[in-house]
Amino acid sequence: MTMLLLLVPLSVLLLGAAIAAFVWAVRGGQFDDLETPALAPLAEDAPKPRDPHAG
Amino acid sequence: MQPAILAEHAWAVPGGMEMVVLSGGMRCAACAWLVDQALARERGVLDVTASAVTGRIRLRWDPCVVELSTLLQRLAALGFAPTLATGMARERLRRREWRRDVLRLGLAGLGAMQAMMFAEALYLDTAAQMPLATRDFLRWITLLVSTPVVFVAGWPFLAGLARGLRERSANMDVLVGASILIAYFASVVETVRGGPHVWFDAAVMFVFLLLTARQLEQWARRRATMRADTLARLRPVFAQREVADGTTQRIAAAQIRVGDVLRVEAGETVPADGVLLDTDAALDEALLSGEALPVAHPCGDLIAAGSICRDRPLRLRVERIGADTRLAQLVRLVEQAQTQRPRLARFADRVARHFVAASLIAALLVFAAWSWLQPARAFETMLAVLVISCPCALSLALPAALAAATDALARRGVLVVRADALETLAAVDTLLLDKTGTLTDATLALDSVQTFADLTREEALAVAAALQGEGSHPLALAFRRGAAFPAPAPARTCTATRRHVRAGLGVEGCIDGCEFRLGRADFAAARDDDGAIWLGDGTVALARFSIKQQLRKDAVDVVAALRRLGVALEISTGDGAEAAAAVAQTLRIARWRARQTPEDKLARAQTLQREGRVVAMLGDGINDAPVLAGASVSFAFADGAALTHRAADFVLTCSALSRIAQSIAIARRMRRIVRQNLAWAVAYNAFALPFAALGWIAPWLAALGMALSSLLVVLNAVRLAGRAS
């Protein structure tokens, strides 16, 4: 049972990391348009990868 | 010029500037992809996002490397003329709200899953073998995880509770907020003093599932608005103003003033409402009305912002700018409709309010009864009753379906101006067509030519063509084509002088010194009107032209579709008897009336209503406004007069009749879904409440059931929008 003392806080930390990643993604506009990207694979050419610094 | 645009429409972001432009030409994913692709290749562009659904392009660029005008020109060269979205502040606000909602939902989802995992561990300890220390440890961790879910993600409910208490009205949020807070704080107390039960799981589950249902409903509504105002918020970026010395000057659209004379090149968008100067012009109003053919406007006509100049450059004197343009008025009307709560929704709200009050009382009664019988379970049972009796599904049943229907209609180019009308539209059983033009094509063709006196067929056509002039009125085109086509040698062309158009009668003019009149029989040849067009000098007939209207390709299908929906068709038109009869016969419409004034049409609509029928009408002129207001449900065309829009319930942005059949079908589907939803919501509450009161339902189960029921109702409604083609 002492293992729980380590594992449970660890899971909480992971949860915190997941939430932080989600917040980052939303702030970066990844959820702003939920429809157009779904259609992108239908185009012939893959669009040019975005500039990673654009945020 | 540039600084003016930048100041009004762009804002600074790290590394550069950002702005949103609209493009009406972007209609599919391929267009959006093309825009993305082309602009992302430009040097200095940091980020481009084009959305095909909303017609918006978000552009982020570095002003030190590339000028905005270069990018906009690139966009225009691709065929997507950029236009500025007005109300940038609102645009940003909208995006901020969207992000906040997504964040809340994500936080609620992640947090609730985790909290429920810990709760599960506690539940599985049925034999109470878990050491107290471990149990308390898990409880404290659950408390830690649930706190942000309840207070950050659940904030909308808590704010609603506070509002309800402040205004002393029992709204639904009072029940939801109270249930969440009671469950949460009771659990905190139990955690601290080591009591037998905690209910964190019920609290977080309630927040998460209910938030999902509510967000889905809100997003459906937002999408409906976005679509409508993209359509109408088109405005070009630049305009060319004429200055005193006759040259032109490029200015930003925001700098246009009333009275300016603007020049619009072929292919450009008209930036403001204004009077056409110098010449006639053909304007493409596809963005405004969806009408594919250019519309002819004679010199002196008022042309609308948002239409595109075809063929040759035109000049106009600005009459209305910005928020006064017809475009802007239409948008305001639609926005107004979207803020209204329709009758049925208000009714559901009222029912829900009584229901909330009743639930609060029921919960207290249950608590009292259980405290007397079995005090240990009193609190838990009360909580279950409180949660399960929340009429969320009832309150969501209607708005969700309405929003989904509005969205589905907007996708097909039908804007809802009065929210109540959707309900009536579902009940429509008679469609009164007020003109044959909606069933026939815009192009006319000469059917037969009869000549009298010593005039030849060619001469008669040449004279008629000259009288009709150069305009692109369908009738003038028909004569020009007729004059050019059958003659083996080029027909003699003549020119008319002193041309004068007599509204409703015809045209008169002077050719080679002779007076001619062309138009209705009583005007041109002093005979009884027979629906044909006569050439004469006012007393003696020279020729008779019969004009054939071609049925639209889809007319037969549309009439069949309407019949399948059980909608009876009736023609009540201002056109001549011959034209109306021909159309009615081809489409097998039994009831038709020709040469009807607006008063006649209104009287007819009222007679039908007295017979118990629900009448839909469509019209486009100012004089149609009273008729539209008199009908049970009315459609107006977007290119019609603003007054007509105010009287109408729906505005059609394209003049295809098939939209009406589709609208009726959508409205009926909406009515069916609303009924299903209401039935489900009422049945669920009535069924679950006794079980909860008897103590057979644990709070977590109540929260699950309640929220799933809300989710079901919303998903059922969203189905309506999803089925769009």
The gist of it:
The complex is a heterodimer of chains A (55) and B (725). By secondary structure, chain A is an all-alpha fold.
Describe what you observe in this structure.
By secondary structure, chain A is mainly alpha-helical. Chain A has 2 helices and no strands. Chain A starts with a helix and ends in a 16-residue tail after the last helix. The model of chain A has no long low-confidence stretch (mean pLDDT 76). By secondary structure, chain B is of the alpha+beta class. Chain B contains 24 helices and 27 strands. In chain B, helix 4 (88-124) runs antiparallel to helix 8, helix 12 (375-388) packs antiparallel against helix 23 (658-693) and helix 13 packs parallel to helix 24 (699-722). Chain B is elongated and about 115 Å long. In chain B, 48% of the residues are buried. Residues 487-491 of chain B have low confidence and may be disordered. The A-B interface holds A 1, 4-5, 8-9, 11-12, 15, 18-19, 22-23, 26-27, 29, 31-33, 35-36, 39-40, 42-43, 45, 47-48, 50-51, 53-55 and B 14-15, 29-30, 32-33, 36-37, 40-41, 46-47, 49-54, 58, 60, 95, 98-99, 102-103, 106-107, 110-111, 114, 118, 131, 134, 137-138, 141, 144-145.
Task: Summarize this structure as a short list of keywords or feature phrases.
heterodimer; A: 55 residues; mainly alpha; elongated; B: 725 residues; alpha+beta; seven-stranded mixed beta sheet; 19% strand
Mean pLDDT of chain A, to the nearest integer, reads 76
Estimated radius of gyration of chain B: 33 Å
The fraction of residues assigned to DSSP E strands of chain A is under 5%
C-alpha Rg of chain A, in Å? 18 Å
Please outline the major beta sheet of chain A: none
Instruction: Give the beta-strand count of chain B.
Output: 27
- Give me the strand/helix succession of chain A: HH
Provide the residue-averaged pLDDT of chain B. Answer: 76
Task: Find the structural class of chain A using helix and strand composition.
Answer: mainly alpha
**Approximate helicity band of chain A:** 40-55%
**Beta content of chain B:** 15-25%
Helix amount of chain B: 40-55%
Helix run count of chain A: 2
